[in-house]
Specification:
The protein has 487 residues and is mainly alpha-helical. Helix content is 61%, strand content 2%.
């Protein structure tokens, strides 16, 4: 547990009921109130996926030029998020939320869909989820997690925090891409516009309340920033995103019940079954080698995104032991694999653990009740998408920056005097935000650790699974030249 994230006050009281005993609320020093606040904070920190995933999956064309549609994907994104979060909470009993993964949805939309019809795409996602589940049930996935050195796990947790900070700053428009430099401050090298003011306001309120240990600090910060955003848009904006809100969304209040409620369209459920289940025939045009490569790419990203998130959030909440392992890892990974399968069944892309779960942990969540609350909010979001869209990125993402700070404080526990651990952790920390991928950061961290261990004559101290995983990552990073040579 890092010093900047004080643990919930411990209590010696015995569990008060079946709910308390099952979720170990008292044992983990939490309370029902903390879990509910944590679940809400997590939802608001990741609710953007209900808006953003449809813009990626819903608008991308498959090999036949077909699109899925934004309303349909929005409904399924919320539904899959709801079911997956509840499943995670009940099965794992940890505060990990799960929904369609950013980055993974880009692979699905822009890397796989151009090669095959959407129905075949989601069949491939289901198969990837089944492979993940088999790896968990055979103990392989858990063994890989346990094989990573404790010091490197801390570095991965810190990297996830820096990644979250980058996501928050980017989603709010506080930093953007530029012509002459990879990133810049604001949209033109300076901070302009009311949306940035809202972001800064939310950040300052969140920091002030958090440092004073106020209950619900992060949730209050989101509420305050959202209220001010609505007021600013109502009094100054033109009602059409003229102030420059992220994704062009304007946080204006609906004016009628019809604007609050939207009947969800779940027509994409079971799309994978279109065309039958003759896999060989359906993928004959693409080729078996290509299909295997695509499944491998998804598998690798999903596998290690989950591991990084689990390590980061567990460390922040004091849920990991001194070796960086958590009790019940198998249950977490089973629920995660099931979420991927649900994502394929619902045509909502690959579902994976969300690093934004750290927002709920920052509010004191320590058990599976928090993701159940998050799941309930996702279920409501299937009906009340206008309310989900009410909160602009600028109001929600300050929480990610604050959580990034919480996770960054763990860096003092990385043994930088050990060259392999130090440099491996450094590579993991910097590559996560710089490549916008938790999995890539883990890959470079593991490769660096094994390489330096070999150079120092400590190769025998490296777990055999670490060598295997490092080789897999090496092949993955060199996919393009390898295929060029083969072709």
């Amino acid at each position: 547990m890092n010093a900047a994230t004080p643990p919930p006050s411990q209590t010696s009281d015995a569990p008060r009921g079946a709910l308390d005993r099952y979720f170990r609320i008292t044992e983990r020093g939490s309370s029902l109130g903390r879990e509910i606040r944590g679940g809400l904070a997590t939802f608001f920190a990741m609710a953007y996926i209900v808006v953003l995933n449809p813009l990626i999956i819903g608008t991308a064309e498959d090999v036949n030029g077909e699109t899925l549609g934004i309303p349909e994907v929005a409904a399924m994104t919320a539904l899959v998020g709801a079911l997956s979060c509840v499943l995670m909470g009940v099965v794992s009993r940890y505060p990990f939320a799960i929904a369609a993964g950013m980055g993974l949805n880009a692979i699905v939309a822009y890397g796989i869909a151009p090669l095959m019809p959407w129905a075949d795409v989601f069949l491939l996602v289901i198969i990837e989820g089944i492979v993940l589940l088999i790896l968990v049930l055979t103990g392989f996935r858990t063994a890989v997690f346990a094989a990573v050195p404790p010091g490197l796990k801390i570095g991965i947790a810190v990297g996830v925090g820096l990644f979250l900070t980058f996501v928050g700053l980017s989603n709010a428009g506080f930093i953007t891409g530029a012509e002459d430099t990879p990133v810049q401050l604001g949209s033109d090298g300076s901070l302009n516009g009311w949306p940035i003011v809202i972001f800064v306001l939310g950040l300052l309120v969140g920091i002030a309340l958090y440092m004073r240990n106020l209950k619900g600090a992060l949730l209050i910060a989101i509420g305050v920033a959202t209220a001010v955003a609505i007021a600013v848009e109502t009094l100054i904006g033109d009602g059409a995103g003229g102030l420059g809100w992220s994704l062009g969304e304007s946080p204006t209040l609906p004016t009628s019940l019809g604007e609050f409620v939207a009947v969800p369209d779940f027509s994409l459920i079971g799309l994978f079954a279109d065309g039958g289940l003759n896999i060989a025939a359906r993928w004959s045009d693409v080729g078996l080698a290509t299909v295997i490569m695509l499944i491998f790419t998804l598998l690798l990203a999903d596998f290690f995104d989950t591991m990084g998130t689990m390590v980061g959030v567990a460390h922040q909440g004091g849920l990991a032991d001194e070796d960086g392992n958590i009790e019940g890892t198998r249950e977490v990974l089973i629920a995660d694999s099931a979420g991927t399968i649900l994502g394929g069944l619902g045509s909502a892309s690959v579902a994976t653990l969300y690093a934004e779960s750290a927002a709920g942990v920052g509010e004191g969540a320590r058990t599976g009740i928090a993701p159940i609350v998050t799941g309930a909010m996702f279920m409501l979001a299937t009906l009340f998408t206008p309310l989900v869209e009410l909160i602009p990125f600028e109001a929600a993402t300050p929480v990610l920056v604050i959580v990034g700070f919480m996770m960054m404080t763990q860096v003092v526990n990385v043994d930088f005097a050990d060259p392999a651990i130090g440099m491996g952790s450094f590579m993991a920390i910097i590559m996560m935000p710089f490549t916008y991928s938790i999995a890539n950061g883990i890959g470079f961290g593991l490769l660096t650790y094994t390489f330096i261990s070999l150079v120092l004559g400590r190769g025998r101290q490296v777990h055999p699974l670490m060598w295997f995983v490092s080789l897999v990552f090496l092949i993955h990073f060199a996919e393009a030249p390898i295929y060029a040579l083969i072709g």
